[in-house]
């Protein structure tokens, strides 16, 4: 496939609450329907060190949200396995972020993944001292996506292939 500056890859994590609720297939269908191509996928149950690198070394969550939010997020993420996926498409990072919706499910717009499948507020999560079950992690920008993909996938786990419509219409 010809690579252009607008053709991007992005990381999506189907968080433990997505896996435990049996929503992976339904949500995955949304990404495929919009034309994103799966180039990597696996189910994994990472340890705290893996999440530390993801959320702090790459995402700098402590700086952005504070130590307490970081700690409850890591605890919540360790409640079950996640499905990690890499999608590829035109401006994939921004497209996925738009589809996923705002980080706080309560304020996520209807029609987004979080708006349709979750509802908790930051206030409630803080009162209960637990992570917010917002279903999905999506890379924030292309640079973050590249770092996250490198953290979650080896180059041998990513595949380059043509989709059927590409293969048979050219």
Mean pLDDT: 91
The strand line-up of the biggest sheet is 2-3-1-4
Number of strands: 4
Q: Please work out how many helical segments DSSP would assign.
A: 10
User: Element order, helices and strands?
Assistant: EHHEHHHEHHHEHH
The low-confidence runs, each spanning 5 or more residues with pLDDT under 50, are none
How would you characterize the largest beta sheet? 4 strands, antiparallel
Structure overview:
There is one protein chain. By secondary structure, the protein is of the alpha+beta class. The protein contains ten helices and four strands, in the order βααβαααβαααβαα. The longest helix is centred in the N-terminal third of the chain and has 11 residues, at 48-58. The protein starts with 6 loop residues before the first strand and ends with a helix. The mean pLDDT is 91.
């Amino acid at each position: 496939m010809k690579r252009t500056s607008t053709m991007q890859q992005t990381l999506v994590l189907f968080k433990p609450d997505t896996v435990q609720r049996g929503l992976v297939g339904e949500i995955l269908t949304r990404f495929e329907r919009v034309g994103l191509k799966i180039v990597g996928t696996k189910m994994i149950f990472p340890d705290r060190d893996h999440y530390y690198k993801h959320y702090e070394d790459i995402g700098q969550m402590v700086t952005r949200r504070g130590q307490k939010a970081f700690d409850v997020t890591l605890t919540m993420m360790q409640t079950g396995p996640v499905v990690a996926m890499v999608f590829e498409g035109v401006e994939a990072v921004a497209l996925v972020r738009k589809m996923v919706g705002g980080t706080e499910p309560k304020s996520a717009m209807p029609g987004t993944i979080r708006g349709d499948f979750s509802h908790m507020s930051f206030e409630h999560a803080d009162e209960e001292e637990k992570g917010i079950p917002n279903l999905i992690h999506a890379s924030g920008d292309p640079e973050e996506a590249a770092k996250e993909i490198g953290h979650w996938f080896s180059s041998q786990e990513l595949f380059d292939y043509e989709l059927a419509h590409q293969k048979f219409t050219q």
